[in-house]
Amino acid sequence: AKSGGKGRHARYDATLDERAATDAQMGADLRLALDRGEFHLLFQPVVQLPDGVPAGAEALVRWTHPSQGMVPPDVFIAAAERTGLIVPLGSWILREACRQASLWLRRDGASQPWRVGVNISARQLREPGFASQVAEALRESGLTADRLTVEVTETAVFENGPAVEALTAISHLGVSVALDDFGTGHSSLGLLRTTPVDILKVDKSFIDGIPGREEESIIATAMLQIAEGLHLGTVAEGVETRAQVERLHQLGYRLAQGYYFDKPLPATEMGAKLAAAANH
Ligand code: C2E
Ligand code: CA
Ligand code: CA
Ligand code: CA
């Protein structure tokens, strides 16, 4: 079981045996939390290398439980998927991220080509009409499609058969598709032949060993070459040190995300960073 930090999430700390009961409880709690407005989004900048100028933002959901405090997404997203609550929650996340991005644009103007990334789970991707839901979120917020990226993992794309149709429909809207945690799934390379993908988000596990281990740099370079050959963008995830920044830049990486630059930020702080970049 996860150690929820000082046992704060003990209620959601279950063995497999206890999981069904916990899920039922969690499902009910998540439903209530959604109705009570206990979720909010933080935004982590995606930045240019090496200068750290923001080029986008990834929306990351947070749940402030009235008695247990901040519950991290690793604790509740999986349960939300198992209980199906991810569908209404994910719909709220998508609309809220579009609404927020649209506010930043209206305030700062559209001079900078940044995008907002929204994580989409396997279950959401398989909802009938998911692409129409994306279109509706854009329409209602007034955000243009070229400002939105959906982030999906390789596993999400392949679970219960490939979700190529949904991703194709989303691509046709003009929304970009990013493969999240790239390199950690089952068919990372096979997927690139069959799925409309615009951006590879190279998983933190491939970035961690840079610059120390030469093998890691070789793999990171190979991923970059594949991306460039296929005209895809790349983002290095989980960058934590200056040495990583220097090496990744030297290898040819142009975009990154990680604590070295910023942790996930409240919407106002994210907006201020985008505004500052626009006024440069
Ligand atoms: P992810 O999509 O791969 O998001 C990146 C995670 O890595 C985030 O954790 C982020 O805070 C963390 N991170 C970023 N830079 C660094 C770094 O330099 N070092 C370290 N150690 N971590 C870093 P977070 O926000 O806790 O989210 C965890 C996962 O939960 C996400 O992984 C994603 O799979 C899921 N998730 C978060 N928000 C959403 C959401 O709105 N919808 C869905 N479906 N899933 C979400
Ligand atoms: Ca992500
Ligand atoms: Ca990721
Ligand atoms: Ca991840």
UniProtKB/TrEMBL annotation:
Q: State the superkingdom.
A: Bacteria
What is the protein named? Bifunctional diguanylate cyclase/phosphodiesterase
Start and end residues of each EAL domain: 23-278
Q: Which residues of the whole protein does the chain here span?
A: 502 to 781 of 787
Native source organism of the sequence: Pilimelia columellifera subsp. columellifera
